[in-house]
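Morning F.,

Quick status update on the modeling queue. The single chain you submitted on Monday has been processed. Sequence for confirmation:
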Amino acid sequence: MLENQEEELTTVRVQDPRVQNEGSWNSYVDYKIFLHTNSKAFTAKTSCVRRRYREFVWLRRQLQKNAGLVPVPELPGKSTFFVGSTDEFIEKRRQGLQQFLEKVVQNVVLLSDSRLHLFLQSQLSIPEIEACVQGQGSQTVTEAILHYAMSNCGWVQEEESRPALLPGGDLHGSCAGLGSPQGPSCLETFPHWSDFGMDDTHLDSPDEPAEPLGGRSEMQ
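C-alpha cells below.
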C-alpha cells in the first residue's frame, strides 16, 4: 500500500519594515523575510533574514539572467513619483515584495538558483553571496545556509517574546537581533531614505549608498 505523499508547501512573509541608519543621509528601510517550508528544494525548513529593497532589485536581475526565457515576477516601486504618505508607500512596497517572493518560490526554474536560497536563508551580503556561488567563499552554499540556521536557534521564541521594535544588534547575528539600532516607528516620515531613490545606476552595486533626494515625492 502506497503512503500518501505530503504536499510540499512554502510560506514566505515580508514584514516588520524598519529604518536603519536613522538620521543619516543614507538611511534606508529593510524588511524581515520569514520562510517556512517542507519542500525538499530548501536546505533549512525555517529561516528569517532582513533585506533592503535594492537587494531585491539585485536578486531579480540575477534571476532573470539565469532563467533565460522564463519570466521573473515584477518588483514594486517602479514609479518615480508617489503621491501619498510615507507609511502608505512602505506598506504598498511591503505587499509588492511579498507577492514577488510568493511567485518566485513557486517557480521550479527560479528555485534552482543558488543566489535565491542564500538571499532567503542567510544574512550574507550581495558580494558574499556572489563569492559563495562562485566557490570563492569559505563555505559552500549549503554550509552557509546551515551555519546561519544553527546560529538562529530559538529565534522564533525570542521574536514572540519581544516587542515589535527590538534593541539594535549585529546584522549577522540571530534574526531577533538583525536590525541596526532602532529609532521611532519605521512608518514615521523620514525624508531621505536612499532606497526610495533607487535607479538603474545603482543596481550593480547594492551596497553603494544612493544619492539623497530632496523631495518626498521621489520614492522609487
